[in-house]
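hey can u run this one w/ NG,NG-dimethyl-L-arginine bound, need the structure tokens asap thx
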Amino acid sequence: MSGIALVRKPGPRIAEGIVTHIQREPVDPVRAAAQHDAYVAALAAAGWRTVHVPPADDLPDAPFVEDTLVVSGRLAVLTRPGAVERRPEVDSVAQVVRDLGMKAVRIARPGTLDGGDVLQSGPTVYVGRSARTNAQGITQLAALLPERTVVPVDLSGVLHLKSAVTALPDGTLIGDPRHVDLPGLLVPEEEAGAHVVPLGGDRVLLAASAPRTAAMLEKRGLTVTTVDISEYEKLEGCVTCLSVLVTD
Ligand SMILES: CN(C)C(=N)NCCC[C@H](N)C(=O)O
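ok here u go:
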């Protein structure tokens, strides 16, 4: 597996990003920029061609590009983020996916959908029913993906479905049963260990804040790359949020 990784650099207002479930802490924009560079370098080292969505310096949460786009094959579903202030992030992403030759469709009002609520694993697409993603958003996504099985999932105490659970390359779901009730969950050693980006083959990307989960996954035969994303974690972000992977 390889392909394109869409990313967007953080802007000078990153510290003003939305915080919902955790205490606000100061975010250092310079450190955030350096961490973003290292994150992009890790994707590139794993063989992904990184494509930068134009910066959106007035939109603090814009580097969390995952929330604006759901990709299934060559179909790009442009979301309608549940947070009104994040909706202006979508147009610039739309332009990039069109330039890449993808078919772009949009979630329409009154639907809301955040990409962070969409977890794809094989034929199944789990979608979190969150404060950001509503029933109409889920219904619209299911209609756009008739060949997939869309499974709505209830959440508690977290921002997005992928704040609580992601999938390992073999399809095993890794997540926190306190936030999400799914059968057969592999429980990570740290909360941030629930966030895994599959890089292709047996390689995964994990936050540096989950060292014991990294060791656990290495024991299962995975090759783990870790990146420090502390400034994004202060804004309820995780490793998945900072990119959208488009496979060839
Ligand atoms: C899986 N996750 C968590 C995401 N895809 N997005 C995180 C967005 C964080 C941002 N401050 C916000 O509140 O929108």
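The mean pLDDT is 97. anyway lmk if its weird
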